[in-house]
Amino acid sequence: MATKTTDAKLADMQKDMVEVGGKQHMTTDYGVKISDPDHWLRVASESRTGPSLLEDQIAREKIMRFDHERIPERVVHARGTGAFGTFKLFESAEDVTTAGVLTDTSRETPLFLRFSTVQGSKGSADTVRDVRGFAVKMYTDEGNWDIVGNNIPVFFIQDSIKFPDVIHSVKPEPHNEVPQGQSAHNNFWDFQYMHSETTHMNQWIMSDRAIPRSYRMMQGFGVNTYSLINAQGKRHFVKFHFTPELGVHSLVWDEALKICGQDPDFHRKDLMDAIDAGHFPRWKFGLQLIPEEKMDDFEFDPLDATKVWPEELVPIRYIGQLELNRNVDEFFPQTEQAAFCTSHIVPGIDFSDDPLLQGRNFSYFDTQISRLGPNWQELPINRPVCPYMALANRDGAMKHRITKGTVNYWPNRFEANPPAEPSQGGFVSYPEKQQGMKLRALSDKFKEHHNQAQTFYNSLSEIEKIHVAKAFSFELDHCDDPVVYKRMTERLASISLDLAKTVAMNVGADTPSKALKENKGQKAKGLSQLEYLPEKPIIVTRRIAILVGDGFDYASYTTMKETLQSQGAFVFTIGAQRQGVKAESGETVVPDHHFNGMRSTLFDAVFVPGGKHVANALSKNGVAKFWITESFAHLKPIAGLNEAVPFIEKQIGLSDVKVASSGTAGLESYGVVTGYGEAAATLKVANVGPNSKGLAEMFIWH
Ligand code: HDE
Fold first, then answer.
1. What are the pLDDT digits (tens) for 77-126?
2. How far is the CA of 271 from the centre of ligand 1 (A)?
3. What letters, b where the CB count within 10 A reaches 16 and e where it falls short, cover 26-51?
4. What distance lies between CA 240 and its chain's CA centroid?
5. Nearest-5° angle of CA 399, CA 384, CA 370?
6. Packing angle between helix 186-194 and helix 462-477, nearest 10 degrees?
7. Which of 27, 487, 559, 596 has a CA-to-CA distance to 619 between 20 and 30 Å?
8. Closest atom of ligand 1 to CA, residue 149
9. Cβ count within 10 A of residue 163
10. Rounded distance, CA 287 to CA 289, Å?
């Protein structure tokens, strides 16, 4: 029995839900109960297994259904995962739009959000270096509104007609289908060089934005320019923003590479685990608005998707909140079959002449047909929750909805299902005056490609800049055609001569002697991800490992575990063996994993309690020792007590880790906190920093 709900989308989908379990017998698709699901009907006796019979309608049905289980994966963004949630407004935007979803502060609009990577196939790894998709479908009272965004605010190209080229260049190469889930190859960087309009975007994808720690810890951007129309018929151009409550955080590259193999589902599990635990991820929703008459006031064209609208010039107005609060029940019908369309807008919202958006409006609608067939809009995940009657849209493969009545056209003699006047909510396109030559061209302002790329680079912190240089060096190292890596390195001299020189040295390109474009050091707001840390550092949903073996100190283990858990952290005991680990004082703890079952990369921090286990187990185990070394290399907070202190000190090879004297609070150095003696008994944890900054805040002693 479906549970009662106030969530309109959940109630809608429940009409099509059945549940595994209970006393209901197993049946065929046509409802007949099955008596023996394990054997094909065949000629057989005790001594002989004879031929299988084609007559077996039950076996044939089962095999046929299996043979056709797969549908084409998305041509891009094939790898992804999603969740349901709600959208609430805390401020009406009725001064700029009539859209109910953006003006009615009493509503809770149900939604589905799908996150994705772009390059890899459906089975590729989550933590690759790539753009992340951020596609939201809001089931509003006036129809579905889709914002099909990314976690990076700009795009590679300016004209949709180039999309097949940019995607072909990044996808596995055609002759050998290599590489999977990577942009580190000749064709991609060849294309990037050939199109200088990609210069801005490839600064973003070489930054830490392309290796997020979690889907919950990245921004979402609509990227394209849309319009909002108010009750007076006035138009504002708009960009949509989603800013995560948890802040923006990234992995470090070595960690990301390793997690690809160690847990390819790292991000989708992270999302599901947080929602299951009731730690619902939230994003503030904001608008950047430009009144129509101001569109020519900028040095860039606001319709150019390779440019951001600098926040100094166009501030973000936050008006709402998006929350994810329910995992899907079944992946295929609720995520794989989700079909997003940039063309799905509701009254009060309209398109713009953004040339990328115009092409997307055709493409998304079109691609769903090859994935799902012409009736994809009727699938439970895609259909609206408001009343709908598409009078003339009938038939086609896999038609599902049954529409009663004798007419399927307009006008009809019954005046059945008449169109709606604008005052009744009928969609009316903004009556824009258009005049011009029919040409294959873009406006002149689209020709400038480097200013914002430089501003992005200049705005990064030193450590972020180092990461960009390392990322370019990794990528171009994987290009074996000298034409590709040499030319691309040269291009970097139009961003920063230092960057170009570092990359040239690493990848074996010619060292550029002069900048190709003067860099005046221009910076802007909102570009460095360090600006998006939570107001107060929080530990909630961070994964923390406690390493124990036989002989560990039970008191400090439990104090630390309980304190961390009370603050919403996910704590895992990693033990020498999962059969049970015995404390010095006799208690037995059953670890969640054993040393070889997990890796430090899958956790945000590590704690080692004191006790004889350090000598008995930890210092004799290579994996446990490497856990500490690797955590340190990945800039993770490490804490240890008593016997664990010299152990940690040895693994990280730090001569200046300071150690407090017995009975006093511990000290920290480089994100390592250590302590001896009584400190263990009074251990408390407060303000925990993100893994990229403020590491020393991880463990605070009171
Ligand atoms: Fe997409 N893109 N795209 N894209 N895109 C698709 O539609 C396309 C672009 C984005 O979770 C496809 O349903 C063109 C920008 C996301 O299901 C396809 C152009 C942005 C998703 C398509 C772009 C995106 C897609 C493939 C250039 C950020 C996954 C499957 C003009 C704002 C949605 C599908 C999901 C998916 C076309 C550029 C984001 C082929 C032609 C810019 C998040 O229609």
1. 999 999 999 999 999 999 999 999 999 999 999 999 999 999 999 999 99
2. 22
3. eeeeeeeeeeeeeebeeeeeeeeeee
4. 17
5. 45
6. 120
7. 559
8. 32
9. 18
10. 6
Active-site amino acid positions? 77, 150
Separation of 490 CA from ligand 1 center, angstroms? Answer: 30
Q: Probe ligand 1: pick from 73, 74, 170, 239, max atoms within 8 Å of CB? A: 74
Using the mean position of ligand 1's atoms as its centre, give its distance from the Cα of residue 690 in Å.
31
What dotted CATH number matches 536-697? 3.40.50.880
The whole-angstrom separation of Cα 458 and Cα 527 is: 9
Total-model pTM:
0.94
Distances (CA, A) of 640 to 196, 423, 702: 50, 67, 15
Q: How far is the CA of 77 from the centre of ligand 1 (A)?
A: 7
Among the residues of 493-575, which ranges form H helices? Answer: 497-507, 554-566
Kindly report the backbone phi and psi dihedral angles of residue 237, in degrees, each rounded to the nearest multiple of 5, phi listed first.
-85, 150
| Contact between 670 and 684 (Cβ < 8 Å) | no
Percent of the chain at pLDDT above 70?
Answer: 92
Q: Cβ(84)–Cβ(9) under 8 Å?
A: yes
Please identify, by atom number, the ligand 1 atom nearest to the C-alpha of residue 222.
32
User: CB 53: neighbour CB atoms within 10 A?
Assistant: 12
For the chain, give every domain's residue range. 80-378, 453-531, 536-697
CA distance 230 to 451: 34
Whether domain 453-531 has CATH 1.20.1370.20: yes
Give the span between the Cα atoms of 461 and 450, in whole angstroms.
19
Q: What are the residues facing 316 on neighbouring strands?
A: 288
Q: How confident is the model over 134-161, as pLDDT tens digits?
A: 999 999 999 999 999 999 999 999 999 9
Atom number in ligand 1 closest to CA 363: 44
Relative orientation angle of helices 644-652 and 622-633, to the nearest 10 degrees: 60
- Residue 410 to residue 424: CA distance in whole angstroms: 18
